[in-house]
């Protein structure tokens, strides 16, 4: 077919859609071949794999095909940003809308930078592809930087193909899909791709723009940079960042992301679901929960009230879980400018090596409940390491327990086991003054040192600080999701157990077809997997779908089952109990300090139930009252615990009259 022919003749009366798709592939393909699907023995297209090769100089293949992004030398001539809203291979309604919003947000950035592109609906399920044609090409290092920067900013982006110059491929615009649909161009045109003049300098500018827009480690702490309503005020006080997200007009460039940040801010502020429902009616930043993306630019249409309530309920539950994880961490880590970038790169390399070790050896962790607990504790230490940016982290037993949903003794046993196995190393032991033990990953996860050459061959450019922090955030989100998915009241020891929680989390991300498949995913013996799956199916937490795979019930029943089993709120009560124990211990340490201080230098301390006439405004350490004593002068720890539980010694409640406290 002559290359002078334009694809515009296909609409109407020219080439058919199949012919236009193949002709576009022939013009754009960086290689002389494409990858194609194969039919099975029954003539069906099962699975999303492209094992065969097909030359581009012949007629179109009879099955769907994918086009390489890089040529044979590893130079990327095409970029494809694949926004996928699937879990365990199946479309998820919430993620599909988030993928559409992410694609629209990236398309707006490309428009601002005058980067010619085409936005496509990749299939009938609603995924998105953004295609960019670079005639001069870019090297794989720049493509990898671009993929990592975009992944840190857009959670639904699958950036693997941008990191794989040899095999990275995607279905081109207009091409057919195995489900009978095809890739449909929503914005742009085939001719714009064919005549694109995008340069490597523009792609480098795009990378810098994505890195500049990347949110911090805790995105709820960053205020919105979008235009905001001047009159919007939350009816209950939020953080300044939360107020900013709530006031963002029409949800900004990415309404689904802004809407979830509103929910996360509300969860941090202690709102109830009724408060969130009230805000969703009018808050500009929660536009995502009132209307949905139609896929036609900025057009949105109202949601049905039932759909709006169900979506808001699901997202609120997720926001509460993430907020609970952030609350365990306490104050945010040091500012970015205070972290040594080179040292942070080493920390990230160690964490990635540790997580690769976990995934590559599932059988090491899953044979027993203790092994599963150790796996979760190792992920928690990795999360703490990323959050602090330090090689050695102080990890209180209670903090690790709350992060993983385990009990404190189970968490302590898991840390001891990881230390004995040589995976973690305790740098500093805990002491009687309240300082927690400090842990670091062992040297087996560290990258091997190599001699530095005076003139190294192909010496790569060192990563910049924004690139390192973007990589840090992407890895932190991955670990956070792993901890959150299995951390619930129903998966505590009194409920279905930690192994059932691990299997539930795995069914969210992978395809599990039967008990043997569950055993393979968990890395455990068949009887353990059978027991975990039996518990999940009995309580209808997972169910079999039309494709014969087991996935979580669309209606999240975890809270309902937790109440049925009598473990509802157990993690919250455990958190409150641990905080109470910390308060009593701090009070006792202050008492010991006073006891070992010369009488003339001791501070004057009132009784715990006394009330000051005025509040001291000078900064300094917390002033504790006298510790309860028995008539014989011995410490009365039970009374101290009761006083702390009643809030008597809390600085926030010192102006309240509490009456007699036993």
Helix and strand topology:
Elements: H1 17-28, E1 33-36, E2 52-55, E3 65-68, E4 76-83, E5 86-87, E6 90-91, H2 93-112, E7 118-121, E8 128-138, H3 140-153, E9 157-158, E10 169-170, E11 184-187, H4 190-194, H5 200-213, H6 240-246, H7 255-268, H8 273-282, E12 291-293, E13 300-302, H9 305-329, H10 341-360, H11 363-366, H12 369-388, E14 393-394, H13 397-404, H14 408-420, E15 424-428, E16 438-441, H15 465-485, H16 498-509, H17 515-522, H18 526-538, E17 542-544, E18 550-552, H19 558-564, H20 570-595, H21 637-645
Antiparallel strand pairs: 1-2, 1-3, 3-10, 4-8, 4-9, 5-6, 7-8, 7-11, 12-13, 14-16, 15-16, 17-18
Helix pairs in contact: 3-5, 3-15, 6-7, 7-9, 9-15, 10-12, 10-15, 12-13, 12-14, 12-15, 13-14, 16-18, 17-18, 20-21
Summed up, the helix count is 21
Given as residue ranges, the uncertain stretches (5+ residues, pLDDT < 50) are: 1-5, 9-13, 448-455, 612-620, 655-662
Q: What is the count of distinct domains?
A: 5
Second CATH tier, the architecture of the largest domain: Alpha-Beta Complex
> What amount of the residues lies in strands?
5-15%
The rough form would be described as: globular
Any idea what the radius of gyration is?
28 Å
The amount of helix comes to 40-55%
Biggest sheet strand order reads 9-4-8-7-11
CATH class of the largest domain: Alpha Beta
What structural category do the secondary elements indicate?
Answer: alpha+beta
Largest sheet: 5 strands, antiparallel
Q: Terminal Cα separation, in Å? A: 93 Å
User: According to CATH, what is the topology of the largest domain?
Assistant: DNA primase, PRIM domain
Mean pLDDT: 82
Tell me the total number of β-strands. Answer: 18
């Amino acid at each position: 077919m002559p290359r002078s022919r334009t694809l515009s003749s296909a609409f109407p009366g020219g080439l058919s859609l199949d012919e236009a798709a193949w002709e576009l592939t022939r013009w754009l393909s960086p290689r002389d071949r494409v990858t194609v699907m194969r039919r099975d023995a029954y003539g069906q297209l099962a699975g999303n794999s492209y094992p065969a090769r097909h030359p581009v100089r012949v007629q179109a293949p009879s099955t769907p095909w994918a086009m390489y992004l890089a040529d044979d030398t590893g130079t990327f001539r095409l970029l494809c940003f694949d926004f996928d809203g699937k879990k365990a291979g199946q479309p998820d309604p919430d993620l599909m809308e988030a993928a559409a919003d992410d694609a629209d947000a990236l398309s707006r950035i490309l428009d601002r930078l005058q980067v010619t592109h085409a936005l496509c609906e990749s299939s009938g399920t609603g995924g998105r592809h953004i295609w960019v044609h670079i005639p001069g090409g870019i090297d794989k290092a720049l493509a990898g930087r671009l993929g990592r920067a975009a992944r840190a900013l857009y959670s639904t982006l699958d950036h693997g193909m941008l990191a794989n110059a040899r095999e990275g491929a995607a279905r081109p615009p207009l091409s057919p899909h195995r489900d009978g649909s095809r890739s449909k161009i929503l914005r742009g045109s085939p001719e714009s791709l064919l005549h694109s003049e995008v340069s490597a300098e523009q792609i480098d500018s795009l990378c810098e723009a994505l890195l500049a827009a990347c949110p911090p480690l805790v995105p709820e702490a960053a205020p919105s940079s979008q235009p905001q309503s001047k009159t919007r005020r939350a009816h209950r006080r939020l953080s300044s960042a939360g107020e900013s997200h709530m006031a963002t007009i029409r949800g900004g460039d990415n309404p689904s992301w802004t809407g979830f940040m509103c929910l996360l801010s509300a969860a941090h502020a202690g709102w109830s679901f009724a408060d969130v429902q009230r805000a969703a009616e009018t808050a500009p930043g929660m536009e995502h929960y009132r209307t949905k993306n139609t896929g036609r630019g900025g057009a949105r249409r109202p949601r049905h009230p039932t759909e709006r309530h169900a979506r808001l309920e699901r997202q609120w539950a997720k926001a509460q879980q993430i907020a609970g994880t952030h609350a365990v961490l306490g104050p945010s880590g040091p500012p970015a400018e205070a972290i040594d970038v080179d040292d942070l790169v080493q920390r990230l390399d160690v964490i990635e090596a540790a997580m690769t070790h976990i995934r590559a050896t599932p059988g090491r962790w899953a044979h027993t409940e203790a092994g599963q607990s150790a796996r979760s504790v190792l992920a928690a230490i990795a999360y703490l390491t990323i959050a602090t940016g330090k090689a050695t982290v102080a990890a209180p037993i209670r903090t690790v327990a709350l992060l993983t949903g385990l009990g404190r003794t189970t968490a302590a046993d898991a840390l001891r086991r990881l230390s004995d196995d040589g995976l973690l190393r305790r740098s500093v032991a805990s002491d009687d003054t309240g300082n927690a033990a400090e842990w670091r990953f062992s040297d087996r996860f560290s990258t091997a040192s190599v001699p530095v050459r005076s003139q190294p061959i192909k010496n790569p450019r060192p990563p910049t600080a924004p690139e390192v922090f973007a990589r840090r955030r992407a890895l932190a989100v991955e670990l956070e999701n792993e901890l959150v998915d299995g951390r619930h009241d129903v998966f505590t020891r009194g409920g279905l157990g930690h192994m059932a929680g691990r299997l539930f989390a795995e069914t969210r991300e992978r395809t599990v077809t039967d008990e043997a498949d569950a055993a393979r995913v968990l890395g455990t013996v068949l009887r353990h997997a059978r027991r975990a799956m039996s518990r999940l199916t009995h309580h209808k937490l997972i169910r079999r779908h039309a494709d014969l795979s087991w996935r979580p019930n669309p209606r999240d029943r975890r809270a309902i089952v937790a109440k049925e089993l009598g473990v509802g709120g157990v993690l919250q009560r455990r958190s409150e109990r641990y905080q109470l124990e910390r308060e009593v211990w701090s009070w006792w340490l202050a008492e010991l300090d006073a006891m070992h201080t010369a009488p003339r230098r001791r501070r004057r301390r009132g009784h715990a139930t006394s009330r000051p006439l005025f509040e001291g405004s000078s900064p300094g350490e917390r002033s504790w009252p006298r510790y309860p004593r028995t008539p014989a002068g011995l410490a009365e720890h039970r009374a101290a615990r009761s006083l702390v539980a009643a809030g008597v010694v809390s600085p926030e409640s010192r102006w309240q009259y509490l009456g007699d406290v036993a």
